[in-house]
From TrEMBL:
Protein name: NADP oxidoreductase
Keyword terms: Oxidoreductase
Signal peptide: none
UniProt keyword annotation of Cell cycle present: no
Source organism, top-level taxon: Bacteria
Gene3D superfamilies: NAD(P)-binding Rossmann-like Domain (3.40.50.720)
Source species of the chain: Nocardia terrae
Pfam families: F420_oxidored
GO molecular function, one term: oxidoreductase activity
Domain Pyrroline-5-carboxylate reductase catalytic N-terminal, residue spans: 12-103
Keyword Oxidoreductase (UniProt): yes
PROSITE patterns per UniProt: D_2_HYDROXYACID_DH_1
Amino acid sequence: MNEVVSQEAFVKIGIIGAGHIGGNVARQAVRAGHEVVVSFSRDPETLRAFAAELGGQAVAGTPREAVTGAELTVLSVPWSIVDIALEQAGSLDGTLMVDTTNHFGPGPGPVAGQTSAAFNAARMPGARYTKSFNTLTAGFQAQVVDRPVEDRVVQWICGDDPSAKELLAAFIDSLGYLPIDLGGLADCAVMESPRRPGSVYGEEYRRADAEAVVAAVRAGQPIPPTPSYS
């Protein structure tokens, strides 16, 4: 089984960047009963208004506050300002970071043969780095969150910290998605942008087809053709 779900209870979820993807994660986290701190906006009043709209136990704060005491913190900012967001977050020692970013736009990037995930993990020394929520649009993620268990849509996970991935999987499950562990940072290429043949980026997956992808990646083989669902 590649789905790893624990029953860990989450008390506080940090969000750095409450735009499309980060905003949807925040919305679904509040809906699932988690405490949420949204942060990192050029307009603090807009951030406070968004927290008020979310209701529940949602508050606006700083990136440092989104990290401090959080069970996990979601980084969801444009690639070009990742370093600015991380600088404002401060020390990430022991922090479970969930990176949703994709390598679009200006800014430093991975070298040949290096995944974007591996590059970003190196920018977060001391963090328990994971990658997820980056393959589907925010609109689609919001649209499919209420599906029955048997039809749940996959949120891929990669990272080199098994226990961090277990905690992230429990969080993803609590939101209403299907967590599937793709592997380590070196295996992330198939879930990274851009949308292209031989990748899962931009595509919907459900359990059986996702498990076939994991098997192919672990065998060093091309992944199966993109599935289509009625």
